[in-house]
Amino acid sequence: MTGTALGAPAERREGRQKVAGAARYAAEYALPGRAHAWPVPAAIARGRVTGVDTSAALALPGVLAVLTPGDAPRLAEPEDATLAVLQNPDVPHRGWCVALAVAETPEAARAAARGVRVTYATQPHDVGFTEDHPNAYEPDDVAGRPGRVERGDPEAAFAAAEIRVDAVYRVPPLHNHPMEPHASTAHWDGDRLTVYTSSQGGTAVRSVLARLFELPEERITVVAEHVGGGFGSKGTPRPDVVLAAMAARHTGRPVTLAYPRRDLATVVGHRAPTVQRMRLGASADGRLTALLHEVTTYTSTVRAYVEHAAFVSRVMYATPTLRSSHRVVPLDVPGPSWMRAPGEAPGMYALESAVDELADVLRMDPVDLRVRNEPDREPESGKPFSSRHVVECLREGARRFGWADRDPRPGSRREGPFLIGTGVAAATYPVEVAPSTATAQALPDGGFVVRVNAADIGTGARTVLAQVAADALGVPLERVRTEVGHSDLPPAPLAGGSSGTASWGWAVHDACAELASRLAGHTGPLPTEGIEVRADTTGKADADSPYARHAFGAHFAEVAVDTVTGETRVRRLLGVYAGGRILNARTARSQFVGAMVMGLGMALTEHSTVDRAFGDFTESDLAGYHVPVHADVPCVEAEWIDEDDPHLNPMGSKGVGEIGIVGTAAAVGNAVHHATGIRFRELPLTPDRILMALLSEG
Question: Which single residue of 330, 617, 647, 674 could bond 265 by disulfide (Cβ 3.0 to 4.6 Å)?
Answer without folding.
Answer: 617
